[in-house]
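Appendix B, Record 12. Input sequence as logged:
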Amino acid sequence: MMKQHKHKMYIKLFAAICAIVMSFSSVSIATAAVKDTDVDGLTDEGEINIYHTDINNPDTDTDGVSDGQEILNGTDPLNAGLIIPQEENFTDPGIFGKPEQFPWYLARAAGILAFILLSASTIFGLVISSRAFIKIVPGVDAFEFHRTLSFASVIAVILHFTSLFFDQYFRLTPAEALVPFLFSRTGIVASAGYDIRIPLALGVIAFYLVIVLVLTAEFRAKMAPNMWRIIHYVSFTAYPLFLLHGFMSGTDSKEGWMRAIYILSVALVASLIIVRIVFRTLIPAIRRVRSSFVKDEASSGTPLS
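Logged structural output:
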C-alpha cells in the first residue's frame, strides 16, 4: 500500500513539473504579446526577427499605414511605394494583441505545449523500455502515463497547425499542413534564420510518425512482437524530427527559457537512451557471458575461484 502511494506521488510530482513548465511558457508568450513599444500591432520580437521593421516607429516606411496593418494587407511595411497611404488609428492591442493575431499566439503556445508533451511521452516510453526504474515507476503506471501523454500531444499538434489556417500572415492551408514539402512559398524566414519550408516539412513527417507510434501502442496486442518492435523503433525518429522542427521554426527558439526546455529534453532523452542500452543490452550480455563461463568451468571440472 505504501509503495502504491509512493508511486502515485512520483506521477503527481512529474505532472506538477510539467504544469509549471507549461505555465511558464504561457506567461512568457503573454509577456511577448504585451511588449509592443510602438503600438503598431506587431510585437517587438516579431518586428526584429520576422518583419525587420523599426520597433520604435509604428510606420517604418512612413507611408501613412502602420506596420501591423500592412502585414494584414499583405503589403511590404518596408516599402512605401507599394500601397496608397490611408489613415490609421494607433491603439493598444492589449495582452493578446488584435483579434487577427490570436491564431498566431495560439499556434505558438500549442506548439510549445506539443513539444513538452511529446518529450514527456518519449521520456516515459524510454522509462518503460529500459526497465531500470520499475521499482520507482511501475510499468503499468508508466504505460498509462505514456499513453495519455501521447494522445494529448497529438491533440496539441493538431491545435498547433490548425491555428495557422486562420493566421492572416502565414495562411497555412490544410494540404500544406498535411503533405510534406508541399509548402513552396519563398521568403518566409523563421526567427532562427531558417527557411520555413524545411522545418515545416520535418514537422509534418514527425506528426505522421507520432500517429504511427500512438496506433501501434494501442494495437500492440494484435501485432506480431517483432513487427511491433520494428515499427515502434523506426517511429522513434519522430523525436529528433519534431525537435528540429521546433528549434528551426519556433518564434521563441532564440529565447533563453525555450532553449533551456530544448536542452533539458535532449539531456533526459539522451540519458535514458544510454540507460536503456546499459540495462537492456550491456548487462544481459555480461550475464550471458558470465553464465557461459560458469557452465564451461563446471563442464571442464575446473574449480571456480
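The chain is about 65% helix and 0% strand.
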